Records
---
Amino acid sequence: MIKPIKIGALAIAGALALAACSGGSDSAGGDVLVVGTDLPLQGASADASKSTNEVAALVLEQAGGKAGDFTVEIKEYDDSTAAKGAWDDAACAKNAQDHVANTAQVAVMGTYNSGCAKIIIPVLNQAGMLMVSHANTYPGLTVEWDKGEPGLYYPSGARNYARVIAHDGFQGTAAAQFLFNEQGVTNLAVLDDTQAYGIGIADAVQIEFEKLGGTVFRGSWDVKQTQGYTATFEKIKASGATAVYYGGIFDNNGVQLVKDKTTVLGDNTAFLSMAPDGFSGYPTLREMPEAEGLWMTFAGKSLDGIIKGGGAPAKFIEDYTAKYGAQPNSSYAVYGGVAMQVILKAIAASDGTRQGVIDAVFAGEPLCLTAEESVSGMGFCLSTETGDVDTVTMTLQQMTGGVETDIKTLDIK
Amino acid sequence: MSNTAPAHTAVSGNRKWAIGFTSVVAFFFILNKFILPEAGSGVQKFFNAWFSLTSMAEIMIWIIMALGLNIIVGYAGLLDLGYVAFWALGGYVAGWLMSPFFSGLNINFFGNPRPGLEFGIHFHVFLVLILGGVFTAIWGVIIGGPTLRLKSDYLALVTLGFGEIIPQFMLNGADIAGYNVTNGAQGIGGLDDVNLFGYVIGTFALPEKFLMVSLMAGAMIFFSIRLRDGRLGRAWLAIREDELAASMMGVPLWRTKFASYAIGAVGGGIGGVGFAILVGGVYADRFNFVISIIILAMVVMGGMGNVWGVVVGAVTLAWINSVGLIQVGELVNNSFGTNINFPSYQFLLFGLLLVLMMLFRREGFIPEARIRMVMNEDKVDEEVSDETKIASK
C-alpha cells in the first residue's frame, strides 16, 4: 500500500536536498541589472516572440551589454502555457510576482497581449517597476476608455507603464479619416473578430467615422463560424455600405473572411476593404488574389519602410539578418527593440534603483528617442503623464501584386 | 473478521493522506513565510523556479476543479466534457461581486474596494464564495435538468455543447440587450484584495493566498470524502457500477444524477472564485475546451472516484503544465548542452503519458477499490480461483 506520509516526507526531503545542491547565487548581483522580457513563447505567437527576444538581445549586445554605468542582462519570461497555446492569465500572474521577486530586475519589456498587461501592470505598479510594451494596443491601459480606466491598473496612483506603439485609438482614427476624407466613403461596414484587439480597433473606427458624419453598420466574424461569412456580407450588402473594415487579426479565419467578402460583394475595386496591422505580415494573405487592393494601416513603420528608410535602422535589420539568418519575424519584433532601447536609456539616466528607472521616464523631462537612435527609424518622446508616444507614425499600405506596398506615412500628433 | 474492518481501514487511510496533505501545505507556507525570505539566494532561486508559490496556489485551484468533476465523472459515472463552464461562471461571480465593473452601482457589503474605485459591487469574500457555489449549483441544475436523461456519448456531447456556449456567452457578453454583462474579451479586472476581518491579503501576500486556496482545497477534499461515504455517495457509486441494478434497488436515478451535477458544479464555482482572486480578474480567453479535457485527464489519470488519487492526478498535471516541463527542460538542456524546447512538446508528452497509463495502469495512479476490481477482473478471477483451489486442497 502507498504510504502517503512517507511520500510527502520523501518529496520534501528531496526538494531540500536539491535546494542545498543548487547553491550558487543569482546571476545578477552587484551592479548587474536585469531586464525581463515577458512574451508568449508557445503557441501561435511563439515565432514572433522568439524574434522579439532576439531583437532585444541584439539591441543590448550593440550597446555593449551596458546602460550608462550599469551592466544589463536579459531574462526571458514566458507568459503562455502549452496547454492553452497562447497567453495564460495564471502564467501572467505568476510572472508578475517573479518579476518583483527578482531583486536585480529593474524593468520589464512586454507584454505582447494587452490582457496579460492588465494583470501584470497593477502588480509591478505596487512594486515600483517600469514596464514598457512594444505591442499592447488596448487604449484603456494608458488613457480613459472604460469607467475606472486607466486608474484601475495603477493602484499606487503613480504611473509605471509606457508603450512605444500607438494604441488602437490612433489606428482606428487614421483608418476612419482615410476612408471618409480620401475615399469618399459615407456608409461603412465595420466588423470585429470578437476578440479584445479586434473589438477595440473596430470601436475606434466606428466612433471616429460617426464623428465625421458617416453611417456605420456594425457586425462581427467569429473564428468558430465554420459555415463561413456569406450571410454577414449579405447583410452588409443590404445595409447600403460601400466599404468594409476588418477589425481583428488575420489568424482568426481571415482566409474565409476575405474569400466570402469577394464572393458576395466583389473584389476590392468594386467594394473597398480595409484592415489594421492585425492583417499585416501574412504570406497567406499576400498570396490570395482576393486580397489584391486591400488597404491596410500599420501603427508605425513597416519592416519594408524601415529598410527602405536606410541609415542606422536599416543597418540594424542587416545586422539582425546576418546574426540570425533571416529578417525579424514582424514589425512588432522591431518595436520590441525600440522598447528595449527606451528601457536602456531609462536605466542609464537612473541611479540603478527601480524607482530611479521609473523616474527617468515619468519624472522631469520626457524621455525621447531620436529617429536616428531608434531601431524603427521613428523618433518620439514618451508622455510623462500617460506613457504613450507623442508622435505616431502611421503607414498606409495597399496590397498590390501580392505585396504590401507602402503608399504613404502619416504623422499624427 | 469484523464487519467494521474495511471501514476502519478506509478511515485510517484517509487520515494518513489528510496528514500528508496538511504537512505539505504547512511546509510550503512556513517555508515561504518564514524561511525563504532569510535563506540564501540559491535556495530562494531553486524554490521559486521549481515550486513557486503562485504555481502551488494554482495547483490548489486545479485540485478543487478536479474534485468537483470527480463527483460527476468519478462518483456518478457521468461523462462531462464541459466542466470549464462552471469555472467560468464562478470566476465571473467574483468579477461581478468584487470589483468596480458594474460602475453604475455603489454597493459595499463588508467588501474591500480600492481607494478611488469604490463604485461597483464589493462583497466580502466569504459571501462571494458562497454565492459562487450557489450560482454554479443553480446552473448545474439548469444544465443537468434537461440533459441527464441522456446516456453516455449523448450526454457527453450535450455537456460539450454547454461547455462551449457559456464561455462564448462570456466572450460576447459585452452587449446583451444593451447591457454590458461580462465586458466581453476585455474581461473584468481590478478585483478587490481579500479582507479577512481587518487583515488584508494584499498583492504580495503570497503565503497567505496559498494558505487560503489550500484551505478551500482541504474543504473540498473533506466534503468529497464525506459525500462519497454517505447515502448519496453510495447511490452515485451504485449508478456508476450498474444503473439498472441501482434502480431495481430503489435508487432514484434522475434525482441522484441531478444531485451529482449540481454538487459537482459547486467545485467549479468555488474554484473559479479562488482563481479570479489569485489572478486579480477574470478573462474569457481562459475558458476553452482544452481546460475541460485537462481536468478530465486529472480525474482519469489520478484514479476516478478516489479522492486522493484525483488530488495526485491534479497536482501532477498542473505542476507539469505550470513549471515542471520548463524546469525539467532547463535541467536537461543545461546538463547535456542541448536546446530542446520541452514545453512545445507538452501535448506529445501528455499523450504519451496517457497511452502508457492506459496500457499499464488503466485504473489511474491511485485507483478506487471498486474500479481496480473492475479493471482487473481477470486477475481477480484468477486470484479467487487460486484461493478456491487452495481452500479445496
Note: Residues 15-29 of chain A have pLDDT under 50 and may be disordered.
---
Amino acid sequence: MSHAEPSPGSAYYFPHGSRLPFYGSASLFVLMAGAAATLNGAAAGGWILGLGGVLLAGLFFAWFGQVIRENQAGLYNDQVDRSFRMGMMWFIFSEVMFFAAFFGALFYTRQFAVPWLGGEGSKGLAGLLWPEFEAGWPTNGPAALGPRADGSFDVMKAFGLPAVNTMLLLSSGLTVTIAHHALKSGQRALLKLFLALTFLLGFSFLSIQVYEYGHAWHELGLQTGTGIYGSTFFLLTGFHGLHVLIGAIMLVVIWLRCLKGHFTPRQHFAFEAVAWYWHFVDVVWLGLFVFVYWL
Amino acid sequence: MVEAAVAMDHAGHAAPARGLTRWLTSTNHKDIGTLYLVFALVMFLVGGAMALLIRAELHAPGLQLVNPGFYNQILTVHALLMVFGAVMPATVGLANWMIPLQIGAADMALPRLNLFSFWLLFFASVLLTSTLFLPGGAPAAGWTLYPPLVLQSGSAFPVAIFSIHLMGASSIMGAINVIVTVLNMRTPGMTLLKMPLFCWAWLITAYLLIAVMPVFAGSVTMLLTDYFLATSFFNPAGGGDPVLYQHVFWFFGHPEVYIMILPAFGIVSEIIPTFARKPIFGYDSMVYAIASIAFLSFIVWAHHMFTVGMPVAGQLFFMMATMLIAVPTGVKVFNWTATLWRGSISFEPPMLFALAFLFLFTLGGLSGLMMAIAPVDLQYHDSYFIVAHFHYVLVPGAVFAIIAGVYYWLPKWTGHQYSVRLGQWHFWLTAISVNVMFFPQHFLGLAGMPRRIPDYATPFADWNAVSTIGSFVFGFAQLLFVWLVWRCARGGERATAQVWDGAHGLEWTVPSPPPYHTFATPPELR
C-alpha cells in the first residue's frame, strides 16, 4: 500500500482553484430545471432530468476522486482532517433538522390539527367544518381522501415487515462497528467482510421497503393521497429510504476503497464519516418505527 | 508580521488565473468574497428596481402601472431576492473576505465548497428570477409562500421551490465552512474570547443557518408534494392544516431574520470602537448577548401568527419569549452606546452608517416589541405597520450595517482611499430618504392600511405619496454608492495598512490591498 502518512506539522492544504464547483452548480441547475419541467408535464422534462442526473453523477466521481487522490498523495495533515470531521458532523446535523421538519409536521397534526378538526379544545371551532368527523389516528381526514371509493384504507402494521427492517438496520449498525474495529486493529479481511455485510443489509432493507411500498400502494389503499396519514407515512419513510440509498452507495464506495488498500488504522476519515452517516440513518429509522409505524 | 504577510508566495501558491477563468474557478477567499459582494450589489439593485416599481404603483390610489396579479408577483420576488440574493450574500461576502484576515488564517477551511456555495446561489437566483417569465408568472403569495394561496401558482411553482432548495443547500455549505474556519483555523493564541466580534456574530449565524435552512427546505417540500403528489399536509379535508405550514415556515423564518441581523451586529461592533477610539464596552457580554438572541430566536416563531387562532397558552408563551429578546438586544445597544461614551469620535462614512444603524435599528426593534404584545398585535397584523417595522430592521438595520462594513473595509480591499466627502453625501441622502420612505408607513399601518395590496382607500394617499418620494431619493442615492465603489476600485489615494488610525486587529496588519495569499504562516498575536 502506497499511502503516505502525512506529517502532523506540515502546512494546511489549499487547492489551487477548481472547475468542479461551477460545473456542479450548473449540473444541479439542469437537474432542478429538468425536475420542474417533468412535474409540469413537459415532453422534454424527463430527458433534461436524466441529463442532470448524469452530470451530477459525473460531479461526484470527479469531486470525490480528486479528494481521494489528494488524500492518497498525503496532502492532508491533521488540521485538514479536523476540518473534514467538523464539516461532516455539521452536515449530519443539518440532515437531522431536515427530518425534524417532517417529524414536527407529524406531531403537530396528531397532537393538534386532527383533534381540532374533531372539535376538541379551544380551537375546536375547526370541527364545525365537518361536524360528523371523529378525530383519531391514523386518519385520512374528514373527506376520507384516498384511492378507494369508500374512503377506507389499511395501515402498515409495525410488527410485520417494518420490524424485520428494523432488525436489518440495527444489525447493519453492528456490522459497521465491527468493520471499524477490524480496520483499527488491522484485520483487513474482517473489515472487507463486515463492510460488505453492512451494505448488503442496507440494500436488503431497501428491497423490502420497495416491496412494502408496492403492497401499500396497490393493496392497502395507502398512497400519498391517502390524507394526512398517507402524506406523513410516505414523506417520512420516503426521505429516509433515500438517505439509506445514499448511505449504502457511500458504503459501497468505501468498501471498494478498502479493496484497493486505502485507509490506515490511524487515518480513515472517509470510513468514519460514512459510519456516522449510517448510524444517523439508523437512528432516524428508530424514530420512524416508533412514531410512524408503531404508536 | 507585515513582511511575513507579503512574502506569502513562497509555498508555491498560484497567482490568480486570468480573465473569466479566475472568477469561475478561483477558490481564494478574497476572490469568492468579491464575487459574493458584487452579486449582492447587483441583486440589491434588481430588487431595488422592483421596490421602486411597487412604490410607483402605490404613489396614488387606483391602479396605474401594473395589474394586481403582477403586483403580487413582483412583491414576492422583491422580497425573496432581497433576503436570499442581497442581504444574505452580502454578509457571506464580508465573512469570506474578513474572517480569514481577522483570525490569521490563510483561507477558508474548505475552499472548494466555498466556491460551490457561491455558484449554487448564482444558479438558484437565475431559477428564481426566471419564474417571472414563466407561464402563470412567479409565485404571488409573498415571501412566506403561505398555502393555500401559493398552491394557486402556475408552472413557475416547482421552479421557485427548487430554487429555494438550491439556495438552502448553498447557505448550509457556506455555514459549515464558516464554522469549520472559525473553530479550526484560528492563529495560535487567538482563543475564542479573543476573536473579533464580527467572527463571533458569524459563527453563531452559521449555527442558525444550519439549524433552520433544512427546516425551510422541508416546509417547501411539503408544499411541492401537496401540489403534485396529492398529499394533505396543508389540506384540512385530508386531516392536515394550513397553519402547520406557518409553524414550520416561521420556525425557519424567525431565526432567518437574525441570520440577517447578527452579522450586522458584528460589523457595527467592529466599526464603533475604531471611530470612537476605545475598545468595545463589555466584550464578553456582547458575545453572550448574541448567543442568547440566537437561542431565543428558536422559541418565538409563533409571534408571527397571533391572528391565525392559537390556544391562549401558546399566545402567552410566544409573547413572553419574544419580549425576552429585548434584554440581550438592549445589552448590545447599551454596550455600543457605552463604547461611544467619552470616545474621541470622528464621523467618516463607516461611522456615520454605524451610528444611523444604532438609532434606526433600535427604532425598528422597539416597534417589534410593540408587535410582540399579542392583544395589540391583532391590530397591527398584516398592516403597513409591519411593513414599516421589518423594513426598519432590514434597511437601516442590516443594509446600513453592510454598507458601513463596505465603507470600513473598502480601502483594505482595493488599496485606495475613497472620497469621504462623496460618502458623506451618500450617507445623508440615504439616511434622510430612508426615514421619509418608511416612517410614514407606521402611520399608514396604524390607520389601517393593509399590506400586499396595489390599491388603497383615498385617506391613505398623502403618506403613500411621501413614502414614494422617499423611496426614489433612496434608490437613486444608491447609484452614488455604486459610483464611489467603482472609482475606489479603479484608483485613488493609496491607503495605508492600518487605513483608520483607531483600527485594531490582524486584518489591519497586512498591506492594503492585501496580497493574493495572506497568512501562509499563522501570524503571532501581540
Note: Chain B touches chain A through 80 residues (CB under 8 Å).
